[in-house]
Amino acid sequence: PMQPTIDGLKTFISTHTLETKVLIAPSFTQGHSIAEAAAEGQPWFNLHVHTVSSLAKEILETSLEECVPTTPDIALFMADQVLHEQLADCRYFNRILPSLGYSRTFVRAFEEFRSAGAGAVNEAAFINQDKGADFARLLDAYRSQLKRESLADRADILRRATECLKSGQAR
Questions:
Q1: What pLDDT does 64 receive?
Q2: How many CB atoms are located within 10 Å of the residue 70 CB?
Q3: Reduced to 3 DSSP states, what percent helix, strand and coil does the chain have, rounded to the nearest 5?
Q4: How far apart are CA 171 and CA 164, in angstroms?
C-alpha cells in the first residue's frame, strides 16, 4: 500500500531535485523510511521530514510566535492537578478518585475537544447535564492552567500555526 506514495515521491524528487520539499508523515521514522525508499538510486536534496506537530512548531518558531509547548508529562501533571483541585466540586465526576489513569483519559479528552476547534462545551449535548457541566468546568480549569503557566498544548500549537499561515505571518 505504500508503493504509490513512494513512486509519487520518487517522481517529485526527480523533477524538483534542488527545491525545498516537505514530507509530512505520521512519525519521523515512517517519514525517513519513505524518503529513503523513494531516493533509492537517485540523489536528493532539501527533503525535510515532519510530523503535523513538528511542522506547526517550526511555523511558530520561524514567525517569532512565542509559544512554550507542553510535553505529554506536563499535560498529564496539569490534568492531574486539575482533577485534584476540581473533582470535589463536581456533581457527576465527584465519585471518582483522581489517578494517573483518569488524568490520562482527561488529557486525551481535553486535547481531542480542543483539536476539534470547539470553543465552549455544549453542555446540552451530553445525555447527563451534570456530566456536561463538569466536563466544561474541568476543561476551563485546564485552559486556565495552560494560560497561567504560559504553555501551549498540541491543540493550541496547531491552532496558532494555522492562524499564522492564514494571516501570512509565516515565512
A1: 43
A2: 20
A3: 65, 5, 30
A4: 9
Distance between CA atoms of 100 and 33, rounded to whole angstroms? Answer: 34
CA–CA gap between residue 17 and residue 42 (Å, rounded): 10
Name residue 137's amino acid.
Answer: R
Report the C-alpha gap between 20 and 16 in whole angstroms.
8
Contact criterion met (CB below 8 Å) for 95 and 85: no
Residues 13/21, Cβ–Cβ less than 8 Å: yes
Burial of 54 per CB tally in 10 Å (0-12, 13-18, 19+): middle
Q: CA–CA distance from 99 to each of 42, 71, 80, 103 (Å)?
A: 53, 19, 7, 6
In tens, the pLDDT along 11-32 reads 888 888 778 888 888 888 988 8
Amino acid at 40: E
* Cα 106 from Cα 10, distance rounded (Å): 42
pLDDT at 50 over 80: yes
